[in-house]
Amino acid sequence: MESQDPAVVEAVKASGESTLEKAIAKAKETFDQLMNVSLNIAVTGKTGSGKSSFINALRGLNDEDDGAAPTGVTETTMEPTMYEHPAVPNVKIWDLPGIGSPNFKANKYLKDVKFHTYDFFIILNSERFMENDVMLAKEIKKQNKNFYFVRSKIENDILAEQRKKGFDEQNILCKIRKDCQKNLKELGDPKVFLISSFELEKYDFKIFQNTLEEEVPDHKRSALQQAWPVCSSHIIMYLL
């Protein structure tokens, strides 16, 4: 391999194989296995919480891109809608109907949206988490599946606070986090991830990413890792 690109030599070495041909064959086998493992992610929350923009961000799309989940100021999701990841089609992100109706029943909701379809749930809110969010989380917990609270539209809160005297971004983020956690205390102080769908590089997205990778079943971890919007195709090829 003396005449080969040093990066290729390093990639072959990292694969544990002795030749480029064997490394490619191993990568293809890994890729085929990856494509056969399905991962279903459910995203729910009340109307206006930014579910569709969040789903688009996870898929590496802008709201205006072809195939993006439709966004709007009114409820656009009336039944579970599945969106395949553009680069990893076995990763499916589901946009579930909002949970903000006055007669919301968590157990009925989970039955209606076919609870067992999903590997884990992301409960989204652009304000503080309320009783319906807690009820849903409790019901998910009963079924032994994971749920994650995401406080969305953080960029709007920061923009509003920047106009005030004595602005301190970290203090504002801490205040928002504590306010969210206060309403969730009966669940045992669960983590709340502060995220902007339009600036994933900021706030808690990296922590959120790491948490999911740690908690997803081993055989589905690779599918999740390949689907993250921060992964480039160049990096993926070397990971394989």
From TrEMBL:
<dbReference type="InterPro" id="IPR007743">
    <property type="entry name" value="Immunity-related_GTPase-like"/>
</dbReference>
<dbReference type="InterPro" id="IPR027417">
    <property type="entry name" value="P-loop_NTPase"/>
</dbReference>
<dbReference type="GO" id="GO:0005525">
    <property type="term" value="F:GTP binding"/>
</dbReference>
<dbReference type="Pfam" id="PF05049">
    <property type="entry name" value="IIGP"/>
</dbReference>
<keyword id="KW-0547">Nucleotide-binding</keyword>
<dbReference type="GO" id="GO:0016020">
    <property type="term" value="C:membrane"/>
</dbReference>
<keyword id="KW-0378">Hydrolase</keyword>
<dbReference type="GO" id="GO:0016787">
    <property type="term" value="F:hydrolase activity"/>
</dbReference>
<feature type="domain" description="IRG-type G">
    <location>
        <begin position="37"/>
        <end position="215"/>
    </location>
</feature>
<protein>
    <recommendedName>
        <fullName>IRG-type G domain-containing protein</fullName>
    </recommendedName>
</protein>
<dbReference type="InterPro" id="IPR030385">
    <property type="entry name" value="G_IRG_dom"/>
</dbReference>
<keyword id="KW-0342">GTP-binding</keyword>
<comment type="similarity">
    <text>Belongs to the TRAFAC class dynamin-like GTPase superfamily. IRG family.</text>
</comment>
<dbReference type="InterPro" id="IPR051515">
    <property type="entry name" value="IRG"/>
</dbReference>
